[in-house]
Amino acid sequence: MADTQRPLSPHLQIYKRQVQMMSSITHRATGIALAVGSLAVIGGLLHLAAGEESFNHFKGILGSPIGMILMLGWSWSLFYHLCNGIRHLIQDAGMGYSIPQFVRSSWLSIIGSLVLTVLVWGYVLMAGGAA
Asked: Which is it for the CA torsion 94, 95, 99, 102, positive or negative?
């Protein structure tokens, strides 16, 4: 190969991790998690249609420690994807493109999703819905 002395194209080893980059990656990952988690919702509906015994078995699986962790992750994915989607809609309207606004809105998506997840799970656990 000829040595052209051209600069290399930037790649992940060059870029410094920033909240904007990580929020974009996380948005895509949560979209995938929501798609996979939707299979659990479909499974729950199928078990519900199959009868009480089948649905009680499904509730037992989701009520296990691993099931609770998966549901917690799925609900956080839902809220993060929602908050970040709202951020993208605002940016599609032409607002929030300066770097400080972009960083602030990225952090707001993260914090907002965590707050919403804690609020919902706090309500679910206090109401006895996860039992």
From this structure: negative
